[in-house]
Amino acid sequence: MAMAPSPSLVQVYTSPAAVAVWEWQDGLGTWHPYSATVCSFIEQQFVQQKGQRFGLGSLAHSIPLGQADPSLAPYIIDLPSWTQFRQDTGTMRAVRRHLFPQHSAPGRGVVWEWLSDDGSWTAYEASVCDYLEQQVARGN
Q1: Tens digits of residue pLDDT in 21-75
Q2: Alpha helix (H) ranges present in the chain?
């Protein structure tokens, strides 16, 4: 089901040509986009640190997600290793940054979601949202 632009991707940091969407990978290999607020925060931190030399374990190259969303306080993104670290459990997950044209579904804030068995809505990864939106635009 196509959803109207929702807070999950609408306010993502934009450049003149692209929108950056940050996602984390679960244990099954599925990518999940961070909320717009968190994506914007990560992107701002990434841009500020871009070009600096990354050293292993350098706190200067870590992004504490709790600063963007208090519910994510246990999570830190380590830029040199492109991982999300959960401090209370030690769980590490891959993260990625995907740039989309502003005219794409993620660039316009379009999010596709599916209804899980527990009754909650879960966003598809950004590239799937873009593909689904393209298919709808073509009448498929």
Answers
A1: 999 999 999 999 998 899 999 999 998 887 665 555 444 689 999 999 999 999 9
A2: 36-49, 105-108, 126-137
For the structural domain made of 19-49+62-138, what CATH number should be given?
3.30.720
Domain positions in the chain are 19-49+62-138
CA-wise closest residue to 84 among 3, 132, 24 = 24
Q: Which residues pair with 84 in a beta bridge?
A: 77, 93
Helix/strand number for the chain, H first, E second: 3, 9
The CA-based angle 91-30-140, given to 5 degrees, is: 165
In whole angstroms, give the CA distance from residue 38 to residue 8: 9
The tens digit of pLDDT for each residue in 95-114 reads 999 999 988 888 888 889 99
